[in-house]
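Go through this pair.

…
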Amino acid sequence: MTTKNSFFKLFIPILILIFFKASVALATTAAIVGGNLVNLDGKNALLDSVILLEGDRISQIGERGSLIVPDTAEVINVDGKWLVPGLMNMHVHLGLVLPGKQAAELANETDAALALRMAAAARQSLHVGVTTIRLPGDSRHADLALKRAIERGQADGPRIFSAGESLSITGGHGSKKEGKANWDGPYELVKAARTQISAGASWIKILISGGIATDGGGLAEALMTPEEISAVIDAAHRFGAKVTAHSGSSKATSVAIDFGLDCVEHGYFLDRKTLRKMKKNGTWLVPTIVVSQPATQPFFERIGSPAWYLKRRESAGKAHWQMLKMAIEEGVNIALGTDQLPAEPNDGTTATAREAQYYVEAGMTPTQALRSATIETAKLLGAEDEIGSLEVGKYADIIALETDPTKDIKALRDIVLVMKGGKVYRNDLTN
């Protein structure tokens, strides 16, 4: 009996050790080896790092030699490349249709054709390193259908946060778009907001001033009434949804902030007083500066934009730029967004990378600009525990760059690897 007991005392720990090692080997599915992991807090990068993955999550991070890479793990060599979180773009319309030749060509687009066009744009977004997007207003709930398809693994694309259909008033921005519903008065707008949330929207977008793309009211004019704004924000917040406002108006924005507005899109003509109010109240800004600046001109020429559209854009450009500089000076919370497709060519790069570059030109440091496209944007979404930085337990949304983006934000032009949720969607490296 003594011999038998001694045997089990010796053998059981061995079995436990074997089982433990097997479990570790099976759990670790991939290892990213040799990259320089950028620190978003301004500290030194972790050079020659190893990132271990378990499924779609990061399980361990350390220096090469400090972690054991299981034989069963897929090894992705990124020697000398710079690793940052997947980029995020907070103002994307995958089904974008702008006035002019493009609108005429897509005038009779079917629901099926729209869905396919949006799916193609989603794949392209992922290819250029954008692993999370927010859709502040799309049509026919195709965005929500695509979101579900991506989550089920039926389509490739970024993580999607959607506002469903944007809420416009009769005569306001976007109200004359063919097939677009309009809502007037608090009752109708509240019902519309609840309808979007019921369909799956986690954001609500209200159009409270005029816009560049339509002739419904001036860009700096307050078009939605305070009662309407208040009612929508209250209704959305009761259901746990956030509210963002398309606005170039200081007056309209100031009113909306008082009612608890979460975010402002564009902000073309916002004054310093309003920006200071945004800072004080924690209201976010998604500038979309790229669409109002001269480098975007070839894009508008290609899609055949009409003269009135180009004139409205040009009239906003200088004020928009000054607004952005003031917002940075005042320390307003800024999240990157383009109002162009993330992969849209712009000034020799993508709209996403060019937007970040504009932030540096307007006064941000490269690290601040990178944060606006990663961890700061995750905070806007309320998802900073899941995405936005390369940390143990978070989703393995990782891109690799040729050079250090904290030294020069133009590094975002040279992406060589894209991973979302532990799956590689682009690899220009030879392993």
Notes: The chain has two domains: 2-86+392-427, 87-381. The first helix runs from residue 2 to 27.
